Amino acid sequence: MGILPGVSREEANPYVDVPIVTGLRDARNVIIARSCQVLIAVGGMFGTLSEIALACKFGVTCGRPPYLDDRPARIDQCPRSFK
Question: How would DSSP label each residue in the chain?
């Protein structure tokens, strides 16, 4: 399932079986952070950082995949580091 920020199903990557088109842009991050039981962060640009911040605020467990452990991450500067 993919909760898409835009207005088109075509924005989903090939691994998304069920695209949920919201048209909400960054506001969809609240939906993701409120709806998930665990947030796994991959990447670390501003959208990802806002999802992490909201998840932390809502008490959701956050982490990053182990295969990223040796790679530098921008999210290491966040108050709740993912180490």
Answer: -EEESSS-GGGS-TT-SSEEE---GGGHHHHHHHH-SEEE--S-SHHHHHHHHHHHHTT-EEE--GGGTTS--GGGGSSS---
Q: Is residue 82 part of a domain?
A: no
Residue 78 pLDDT greater than 60, yes or no: no
For residue range 44-66, list pLDDT tens digits in order.
788 888 998 999 999 999 887 76
- Cα–Cα nearest to 35, from 46, 82, 22: 22
* Residue whose token pair is 């993701």: 32
Tokens at 33, concatenated:
């952070």
Q: How many folded domains does the chain comprise?
A: 1
